[in-house]
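[retry 2/3] Probable peptidoglycan glycosyltransferase FtsW: previous attempt timed out, resubmitting with same input.
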Amino acid sequence: MSVTRADTSTLGRWWWTVDRPTLIALFLLVGAGFVLMLAASPAVAVRIGAASRNSFIGKQMVFLALGCAVMIGVSLLTPRQVRQMALLGCLAALAMTAATLVIGPEVKGARRWLSLPGFQLQPSEFLKPCLAIVCAWLISLGHRPGSRFPGALAAVLLFGVAALLLKLQPDVGMLMVVAAVLFAQLFVNGLNMFAVVGMAGAGVALFGAAYALLPHVQSRVQRFLDPAAGDTYQVDVALEAFGNGGLFGRGPGEGRIKTVLPDAHADFVFAVAGEEFGFILCMILIAIFGFIVIRGLLRLLGETDRFTLIAATGLLTQFGLQAFVNMASTLHLIPTKGMTLPFVSYGGSSVLAIALGMGFLLALTRRRVGSGGGEA
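[retry 2/3] Probable peptidoglycan glycosyltransferase FtsW: success.
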């Protein structure tokens, strides 16, 4: 059944106002995630002694299906409903992130998860998109006619609460992403050059403090600068995978690296793509991520609503930066960081949180009468 422009139902209005090219690109990433999970996860399941070699595939199919439902459902919301949902989500995510410090299991020296029946929840993943929306809301409130509300200051204080919780877990990578998102939002809001330099200096100081105070951060940086300084097994194996794959790859299911790479289905799934499908598929994946970010930014060029502009900028920065960190660390361009590749890596919390963020983005960038972009 086709949806015509004369259709005034909720679905009809949504179809003709949502950014369909971005929606298609996101579904392509979901499809790539499913294919790469078929390629990478059975070997990992066998190696760790899982009940079934398809256990990861079954769970990820559920996560991807739920993620698509969340993304479509959230994209139907109005900007007001997006703000309300993000505010409730931010408060809940902050509370649950704090709860991980008390009742969360310790994994590799960090407390980032809550154990639920059959599922490990990472609340900080949901904090990222919700915090970006709430900070944008606070900043925009300070620009209302006659308003004396210190919106930017309120956003910085809220970020400070989130940053403290992330530091205590600790999750420096997540903290850096959240900080970069806020910086991008403040910059778009009209941050003067003195403040830009000051915040850049604060970022450098934050990284220096993390390097000095957190042994695992120091170890990763040292191993990046000098491979002889410690174990670089995963990165070495990942680089070998890209070399094995060449231009066109060894073929689906023909990769060998996934049998020895511990996180082949998660943080290093990009290496599996490189070995089995080759350089060309890797470039296609990079192009899809780039298309989503660039198209989103171009769609904002005519936007006159400050909240929409700041919120969408934050969501796009978060999405693009997370993809960059995953792929760049796999290629040994930056120190390794356990960060998932959006919609491609295994992980329920990651898939659902990214779906929530992209649903927010699709909802905010829908064409509406009176918006800067007009009506589609």
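[retry 2/3] Probable peptidoglycan glycosyltransferase FtsW: The chain has 13 helices and two strands.
[retry 2/3] clearing retry counter.
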